[in-house]
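ARCHIVE CARD
Drawer: 12
Card no.: 0347
Subject: one protein chain, sequence and derived structure
Cross-reference: see card 0346
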Amino acid sequence: MSIWWSLHLRRDAASVPLARRLLLGTMETAGVDPDISYDLSVALSEACANAVEHGGDAGSSEAYRVTAYLDGEKCRIEVADAGPGFPPGGRRPPFRAVHPEAEHGRGLCLIQELADHVHIGNKPGRGGAVVSFDKILKWRKDAPLVAV
C-alpha cells in the first residue's frame, strides 16, 4: 500500500491545522495506530509552524510545501519553504532541550523526539529550508489498507 499527497500552502497560521487534519484523516482511514498518527501530526505541526514563521520575507505570503508519503511500513513527511534557509556552511541549528512549556524554540527538538529519522537542510541550488522526517508505522488490527 502506498499513499502520498502534496500541498502548497500560504505562509499563514491557519494552514498548520489544515495540514495536520489532512495527515490525521489519511492515517485514520489507512488504519495507522493512533499513537503513531498523533506523534507524526505533532511533528508536522511544528515543521509547518517553522515554515510559517521563518519561511520567507517579513510580510511575504509565499507558499510552503508539505508532502507526505505512506509507503509500506514507513511514513515520510517533508516540509519545504522559500525562506533564507539555514546558515551557510551546512550548519543546521542544534537540537537543544527547551523548557516543556516554552512557546518558541522547541520545534526541531520535538520533531527529533517524535520521529525515527530527521533530516534538516537547505534546498539544493535555491533558497529555502527543508525538514524531512520519517517514522515506522504500526497498524490497527482492523486496518483496511495495511501494507502487505
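Annotation on reverse: The helical segments are 15-30, 34-54, 107-114. The chain has a mean pLDDT of 86.
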